[in-house]
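Question (not urgent): is this output format expected?
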Amino acid sequence: MELTNAVNETKGNISHLEDLFNDTGVINEDAETVFITGDAGVGKTILLQRLQNLWSKGELCADAKFFFKFRCRIFNSFEEDKISLRDLLFKYNCYPDKDADEIFSYILQHPASVLFTLDGFDEINVDCDLNDIPEISSPFDPTHPVALLMNLLHGNLLKNSRKLLTARIGTELPLRMVRKRVTLKGFSKDHLLQYLKKFFKNKPHQASVLTQLEANPHLCSLCSVPLFCWIIFKCYEHFQSTCSSQQLLDYVTLSDVYLLMLEVFINHSSKAALNKRNKSQNETFRTKREALMRLGKLAKEGIENSNFIFNQEQITAADISEEDLQLGFVKSIGHYDGCGNQSTYEFLHLTLQSFFAAFSLVVDDKISAKELIKFFTGHVPPGKPQRMLISLFPHQSLKGPSKENLLQCREHFQLTIFFLCGLLSKTKIDLLNHLTCQTKVQKKRSALKSYLVGCVKTYMVNDFYQMCAVPRFKWLLRYIFEVQSKEVAKLAAKRICKDCINFTYCNVYSADCSAITFMLRYLQKTIVLELDNNNINDYGVKELIPCFSKLRTIRLNANQITDDGVQVLTEELRKYKIVQSLGLYKNQITDIGAQYVSTLIAECSSLIKLAIGYNKITTEGGKMLAQAVRKSKTIKHLWMWGNRIGDEGAVAFAEALRNHPSLRELSLAANHISTEGGKHLASALEDNSSLKTLWLTANEMDDEATRCFADVLKVNRSLQTLWLVENNITLLGANDLIAALREISSMQEICLKNNKISIEEATALKAEQRIVF
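Got this back:
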């Protein structure tokens, strides 16, 4: 989990769940809602369940006496047009075993004792505009359910209570309502290994699964999403329990994995499967075709109407039998309605509902190719004009997604299109021919490919640079990869007219690197690829291997990359020697990884810029990097801030600086460098004529080091900017620098902010404008 600010910049990790409620990372002091976002399957619901579990044991928020949990989709299905806060709590959430009025009175007097969790804000589907919703402050007045929810989130109702709200990436909540923003990032490599050991207790099984995963980087990449990891592990578990020799190595796309999950569920629920373990996938699906079609029809109608909860009448109307339910894809859920329990149902997960909807669109002979395309380009649910929440879902069209805004539609549509692409890929033709008319499958496949070609032409030509910096371009690449069409991928590569593809802050997972590579491998030129602040990790680096020969700049800052990923990265970049700029800031690189990077610096004459700050590099790693810089005649910019190289590392960099022909910028900020290290760096500047900027912010240097820099400035005429922010410099050191500046004109700025210089002392020294206090 990562804290993000109002403009989506990462502000650090959350290691303990109680940190969700403290003051770290607060955006708006007056707001009360912690807004948690993440892609489908990344673990939002599991997080809230974990919080409830801890609260029930008294291990979370000791002052929270009441815990109310809601699925936001319930606000679509209230029988009443209007409800009050009291009804919401005690009619649709729990039945107190004591007097409800007495408990409600206590809650109103002590709102800080209440904790709400509200899951799936993106699943709200109403026919009103939130801009027209009035403010409600009375807990007894009935109002529209969504109006009640919004006033609760805003703090108009039950002010000072705590709320945790989850939603999928791309859903917006007005900042005035947001106290904190948190992004769920999924599994890193270490998390995956921990989960592997938790899931498979048997060590031989652990070793077997890990070996197979390592042999298929894309499967590893999919495992960065916890839901997909669970599905893959359940499939492995099934194969182990049936002593089957079947492997997952041949399964490439997520659609392949979901088809495999369906096969495992069907076989697991069928007694006949015990005697037919070698039954083919085609035969398995053919025997259960009608049941799968009934579930698919239900899923499709739900996707069309943004409906994710089904009552008993809807289940009966869809002719879904108890045997169909026993397959395990649809589960019964508890539902309070004030009159006892009523049977309601939902798919195991939204992604599964989207998969079944896609399955229905492909296999149903009554749906033509034209109708299939119309499903996601112009569908408006009958009788429901869908005046959607424009202020909250700006990406939602009032008329349904069109050819121009296909990739901006809500995620359940995007997922359905995604699985549609997977099911209509060439590798699924044999399976589909056993389930439906071969001619119609070919027509649907051709229509989908033609439509994707149209999307590529539209987006690549008209708005490519802006498009590639937003998530909808990520979805386009996902579709192209899932349909496994080289023709469309080549066209997309051919249409790239800009020199930079920017995926910064797009919530790109390691599995998405497969889609990126699928297109970039067909490029005929070199390009800049920016992937900062995502969740690439080591498996994503492996997935990018086929396109490193195309990249002159690769930015992988803040992506949970470890030494293993760095080893793969540097080995590939050394093969081609075309990389000019490499970003590895804020990862998990140690001295081992620093050694790999050092080899790249020394051997790759094209490398000009390197950012490797905020990692776990100590003195030894610092020495290796400094030695590599000393050998390089081309490196110009090196940013090492936020490591721990200490004075010994600083001495090594001082030696690298002496007579260096090209280095123009060097940052050793926040590296535990004391006066001793500072003195060596200052001394090295006497023999350097290339360095323009030196950052030494947040170290431990005092006036003695400052005096050395003042002396060298009288000799060095190349240095223009020197940052000594957050050190131990006093007025004495500042005066030494001012005296040196009187003798030189080449120096443009020396920054001494946040040192041991008072406001009065700084004011008295304002005459020298090149000193910034």
